[in-house]
Task: structure prediction
Amino acid sequence: LAEELGDKDVGTALHERRLKMLEDDAAAQTTPEAQQVHDYARMNSLVALGRGDDAVKLFQQRAQQRPDDYEPWARFGATLHKLGRDDEAKGALEKAVALSYGTRRLRYLAALAEVHDARNDSEAARVARQTLVDDGAKLPAVLRDDKLIAAAQAKLPPSPTAQR
Result:
């Protein structure tokens, strides 16, 4: 709110305070699983404070600690994308997609499509969105994210059969 109201100094002070609390809590935990609880919030504060490289290091470490968990890979990719490092984000998000399932997989495919858009790779973005639509259609209704699927569908080019 302070930042939205234009009080950058207060916003910075609050991010610093928040980050200290989050880092203290993470340091008190004994497992990477427990430590990662606040990683997303930590990343947001680090980026807001101009410490994007520290956020990248956080998720590099977390991905090394938990290589078979989709969560750190997704956060790693999101952080890199937020920093405009989309060539690096691509690999992390591809790993998150490969490890994930259900609705999370759909969200990670949407993020991957955004990264491909940022990289000006329209074919890879199309493939990611089509995969999202196809995978989403296979999910039970209770697990589907119809808004996400519709948004991906809307960004797909019309199919050749639809043009006839």
In short: The chain has nine helices and no strands. The radius of gyration is 18 Å.
